[in-house]
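Much of the work behind modern protein science is quiet bookkeeping, done one molecule at a time. The protein below has been through that process, and both of its lines are reproduced in full.


***
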Amino acid sequence: MFYDTESNAHGMAHDPFKAIVAPRPIGWIGSKGRDGSRNLSPYSFFNAVGDRPKMVMFSSSGRKDSLRNVEETGVFTASFVSRSLLDQMSASSAAVPYEEDEFALAGLTAAQGRLVDAPFVGEAVAALECRVTKVLTLPDMDGNETDSHAVFGQVVGIHIADALIRDGRFDLAFAEPIMRLGYMDYAGMGPVFELRRPSQRT
């Protein structure tokens, strides 16, 4: 089949776009407003976008509380979502008033960042502390502004639970990351295998 995205006439019960661009890591974004209000929200439009320096980004569809906070303070955190925290991650996605604390709502510890004034999930096996480098309202191909807002951040600090460091590596199999698919679907990680680049093969 083929369909153009302007008409979006795919004929399916649900738009398949996000199911095709999958799996996607979940950015569990922690932030704090100028008034001290804490926010914790999962974003499936999230990824690493550079390593020299280390950079991540998340994109907000609409002007949500996380976007407001990072624009006010210039910092955020991204906590790792493990299978053991799936229910708490889901609870933190609830649409609640700005002043309501999703850390408390989900029964999570709001740990204070060491280098940035933003909270992260104390129960997470890893977390990134980030300083905002750019916030972009994404344009469409005609140059018109959309309601998608991309936040880029430089990673200035990394937390890792000691138990997850095995043989000199962050053990992803033990960490059990949860990834976002399309629709209401999520997935865990299958068996880990190594594949060397052609230049690395002997």
Notes: DSSP finds five helices and 14 strands in the chain.
